[in-house]
Amino acid sequence: MKKKSLKETNPYLKDLKKYEAALITNVVTSSAVEGIRVTPAQLTKKSLKSQQT
Q: Whole-structure pTM over 0.85, yes or no?
């Protein structure tokens, strides 16, 4: 029996809005541990700019 992938079983990866929110939280907290201050607004702006080009 083949196992399902994490993307198929994790509700946060299935739902695009939940996935994006979790990814932003992950980047903000991981960056803070390294001493880099990033806000969710900064990440959202960058992702919007990259989608427009």
A: no
